[in-house]
UniProtKB/TrEMBL annotation:
MF annotations from Gene Ontology: 4 iron, 4 sulfur cluster binding; metal ion binding; tRNA-2-methylthio-N(6)-dimethylallyladenosine(37) synthase activity
Stated name of the protein: tRNA-2-methylthio-N(6)-dimethylallyladenosine synthase
Keywords recorded for this protein, A-Z: 4Fe-4S, Iron, Iron-sulfur, Metal-binding, S-adenosyl-L-methionine, Transferase
SUPFAM superfamilies in the cross-refs: Radical SAM enzymes
Organism: Caldisalinibacter kiritimatiensis
Amino acid sequence: MLTKHENAKKMIIDVWDDSAHIVENLPSKRKYDFKAFVNIMYGCNNFCTYCVVPYTRGREKSRKSEKIIDEITELAKKGYKEITLLGQNVNSYGKTLDKKVTFAELLGEINKIEGVERIRFMTSHPKDLSDELIYAIRDCEKVCEHLHLPFQAGSNQVLKRMNRKYTKEQYLNLVNKLKKEVPNISLTTDIIVGFPGETEDDFEHTLDIVKKVRFDSAFTFLYSIREGTPAAKMENQVPDAIKKRRFQRLLDTLTPIVFENNKKLKNQVVEVLVEGVSKNDKSVLTGRTRTNKLVHFKGKKELISKLVNVKITTPKTFYLEGELINK
Ligand code: SF4
């Protein structure tokens, strides 16, 4: 299209009707030269009733595993150490491929790529989190001990109206399995407060999950209408004042738990991938642990892109302060 435009010197418009096809080998603009995001699939089939993605991005389609492996192998050759696999629901990766490959199998293949040091992925839908995948997280040494597993709401009635296709009990059961198989796993989540029809009792179930799972962090949202979604037309929209009150209670429950979790890391030595310098103090470097926690410590900027060991000295709620113990 660019060539046509260059030759014709006029606007070129093309609407492609083959939305099932994935275009490979397009150039990517990458922000870092040591960590990369790699799409493994596009679209979503889940139709959560509050979400526009299935309407705007279309149905789920997976890239062929060979294409993903080739891309990551090339990235590793160029020095990329950390790969984050992206998809709306990576746990259902491979279902649309002729040659079936599960997400756990894909992780196993990426784990073998020389040069890759860390593998992350998001997002995971609880309904598709298989035992096979839990074992892959446990057994692939490059897969980081962090899982972002959105639960959205704790009440089974609300989950049903959200069309999430799991119950509170199933979610907690998954978390128990994960913690048993990967004891040092850090868990993060997404939570929506004030979904249509949410009662005080429903909201208590959300708080109950937060207390039981003890998340390491959470993206918390006040429910807001997305036009064109089924939830936008649901009756019993929750008034803003109630949503805000519940939201504050959620933060008041969550924040001390996050801090408690971080406090356990005091005096521990953690591996950090150095990502850059602090905005506020140029002598301070920032990076992330395998469990995806943000760490600040003094060091030279030559360490950016390196894996270093840092002893945690002062845990805070949203980050950890530490001291470099090797170079
Ligand atoms: S919330 Fe996630 S899983 Fe649900 S429809 Fe949207 S993209 Fe799909």
